[in-house]
Design goal:
- The structure holds two protein chains of two kinds.
- Chain A is built from 17 helices and eight strands.
- In chain A, α12 links the parallel β5 and β6.
- The longest helix of chain A is centred in the middle third of the chain and has 26 residues.
- Chain A is globular, with a radius of gyration of 20 Å.
- Chain A starts with a helix and ends in an 8-residue tail after the last helix.
- The model of chain A has no long low-confidence stretch (mean pLDDT 94).
- Chain B is of the alpha/beta class.
- Chain B is built from 21 helices and eight strands.
- Chain B has a four-stranded parallel sheet, sandwiched between helices.
- Classes of the chains: A alpha/beta, B alpha/beta.
- Chains A and B meet through α6, α7, α8 and α16 of A and α10, β4, α11, α19 and α20 of B.
Chain lengths: 386, 466
Amino acid sequence: MQLFHDVANQIKCQPLIDWKALNRPVVGYTCSQVPAEIFHAAGILPIRMRGIETDGMDIGDAYYGPFICSFPKCLLQLVGKGAYKFIDGAVITPGCDAMRRLDECWRKAGEDYDGIIPGFFYYFDVPHKAEGHGMEWFVEEIEYLIAEIEDYFKVTITDENLRAAILEYNKGRRLLSEIESMRTSETPVVSGSDMFAATIAGTVMPRAQYNEELTQWMASLSQSPPMENVRKRIMLIGSITDDPDLIRLIETDTDAMVVAENLCFGVRSEGRPVDEDADPISALAEHYLGESTCPRMYGRYKQRLAVLKEKIEQSHVDGVIMQNIRFCDLHGAENALFEKDLEAEGIPCLRLEREYGPMIDKGRLKLRINAFLERLGRGRKYASSN
Amino acid sequence: MRAAIKEYNYDWLMGSTLSAAAKFPAGTAKEIAWAYRYIPYFKGIVKNFVDAGPPGIYFMDLLAGYYQNILDAHAQGKKIAATTFCSSPVIFYAMDIVPLTFEVLTAIGAMVWKRGMFDYMDYCCEVGMPETACSSQRGALGAYLADMGENIDIVLCDTPGVCDTNANAFVFAAEYLDKPFFQLNYPSTLGDSRSQAYHVKDFQAMIRFLEEQTGKKIDYDRLAENLKEVEAQDAITADLEDMLMMVPTPIPPIYTLMIYAGRFCFAGHPGYTRLLELLRDEAQKRMAAGVPALKAGAENLRVLMCYIDHYTVDINFYNYLEERGIANAGSILTRNFRDYNPYCQALEGSCYGVDLSSPEAMLDTVAQMNARLPMVRSIRGPYDQHGMWLDECLALARLYSVDCIIYNGTPGCRNTWGMVKPFARDIEKQGIPVHIMNDDAFDDRVESWEATRERLDEFFTVRGLL
């Protein structure tokens, strides 16, 4: 478990250092809709890019305008400072406007900061609709991406390689699902922050090593006693976060636990297996686009609400904390709709706006979270009485 | 929202205001002078359009008609579709659907009302939209969320060629009002066969959606009529574009607003053809008489607005250009990208043609037309990709001989704010000064017009332009 926390809290973590020591390539990507299996199939380590460890914003602010979410700015800041010089490639997607403009801002920063643009720099055009021609487009995008990887890295990605990669990734997904059920049970044995650190680590670590660590962790969890003092069961949703500290903020010095989440770096993306029997590219497309629950997939609000409700029911959630990074209107507006619909069904909700990065507004957030937890204490629905 | 505001049906209120304003010139000079005294906060805009002559007066009448169409829609058995300025109304008129374009309605309200659209914008936030959401939709949308306007039947928007905040506002409207929703989706490239084919398939899906919602099949004969009207409109617009290239130009700054606002509301509708004819005739008369377009007399400077104009109270921005003798070479909203326009020659793969030979050809025409609407066309992909924002602005800057380029938007323009700094730097490298305005085109509370004006003056002075 400690390894997961180490990986979650450092950009250049030990598994990455070990991988690079073998002179093996690493490609960074910026969105959960990029099929990591493709890189795995090519012997490349795919890592989800994170903005942690940012200690300034001079570079982020120099290229991005003022009304932009702090997550891509933190990424650009780290890129400009050379924190990602170890990657051999980068894949940018139009996850949202701010993220898609990382393409230009990164390239333009590269005119001012030497060596920050990796040799493989690719724009992966993910459509906003998954039906019909949207799915056809995405399948073609995956095929183009594969061709570009093969061409640049001088590798061959066969269907067999892809199937093997899907199996390897699915192994981790199934392990995560099992561990997730230990968290969502009425007597959880794993905390929200540990679970989140583990899912983040899965976006960075070599998959075989990750699966091995998960297997060991699951074995130890099966021997663990239930968590103590879990009276309020919380679900955390909203904008991108890759910081277990945000969950720790809810769980520390309170009788609350984050028993469920619907976050981009969380089990939302990692918990479901890819179809192992179908054509691998179609299966990846269906998984990464068809099953996406990101609000960038416009017109699917009701589907996302249904997912939330199901999870709330399964995890016996007492209250939902909805956060959005300032200027993240996709989550900001959707949180308002969720709040309206969930509160109407008697599920207490708290909406928070925050900045990405170091927990600079920790005090303010903590105050509001504690006030919300007090509210739950007055009329909680599911919490056990231990 | 204040109870007093909720007393009035928004569509009726705005339509009546514009309709009354359009009747002003029917009075004697004395009557008009007296009437102005009774509308101190609306006088500025009325006077501007009245002073613009027949096209200005007709423009107000045309917009009043736009609201009347919305008010009459349900009584006539028509559906109302909330939509965006990035979606051509041609198809709606061919299907007997009444378009209701949030951004245009917000701009009108922002210009007309003393308090702008603040109350309506804030109502959107009251019901949950982030304050960082784009003000262009938040204005008019507030009225419909507050149940103060006509009942919207369908919501249709564009993604992601336009910005997320735009699409997101329509998604919010659809969910909040529980209305059927359709998104036109755009890839990041334009002009290649793959994205062209995607546009057509997407457009066909939209037609199926609209047919399901209305219970009526598209009438291709009617679509053909509308597209013939578009042909006529494009031809007149090309004449106006030619005149805009002349130095000094006979086209006053406010004409560009009328050209694009008219297109967003009435493309394919005879009313818009009439507006364009009036604009062309007045400009030609001015040209023949040697009368300058700008009230200041001399044309001291030419600017290209690389994004949108500034719309808040009393159309201060257009007056400012007039006072300083600055010709407005238009904005991202002005151009229509019809194949014979000069700027299309400079931007290979950017244009569309009109083909009426078959239903498929017509649908392809409208799909390609839609794919070239503002934002959808030029900020869909990386700004420095072939034919995108940078190429377009540099081509237009050269063609219209502009002295500088000005960016203006809203804080909600996440898409452009994500790239405008490097974009401006790339333009400056070509020797063209760029000014980035930090106001909100629809909301004076973000930056007062006075402050905006000072910054514009500062830019023109420091860069030695005026």
